[in-house]
């Protein structure tokens, strides 16, 4: 199983974890994804069963810094687009 972390704003790959021995359930448990609400899970997590890749949306340091400096970017809905 490969777990990829992507920035939900700028769409850059932040990092990845390769654990071929993990099942989907193990990956979700060890990465803490089991603590998400069903709505959060559906918005932030996707699983490509053909390739065995679990994709998780998060926020990269660059975008987090931009949001902290200019919170109105989130209201406008166009952070770094």
Automatic annotation (TrEMBL):
Biological processes, Gene Ontology terms: regulation of gene expression
Domain of life: Bacteria
Name of the featured protein: Anti-sigma-F factor Fin
The species this protein was found in: Alicyclobacillus macrosporangiidus
InterPro entries to which the protein is assigned, alphabetical: Fin (IPR020115)
């Amino acid at each position: 199983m490969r777990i990829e972390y992507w920035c939900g704003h700028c769409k850059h790959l932040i990092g990845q974890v390769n654990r071929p021995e993990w099942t989907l359930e193990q990956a979700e448990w060890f990465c803490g994804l089991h603590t998400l609400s069903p709505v959060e899970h559906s918005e932030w997590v996707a699983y490509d069963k053909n390739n065995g890749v679990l994709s998780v949306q998060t926020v990269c340091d660059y975008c987090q810094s931009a949001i902290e400096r200019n919170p109105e970017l989130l209201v406008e809905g166009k952070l770094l687009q």
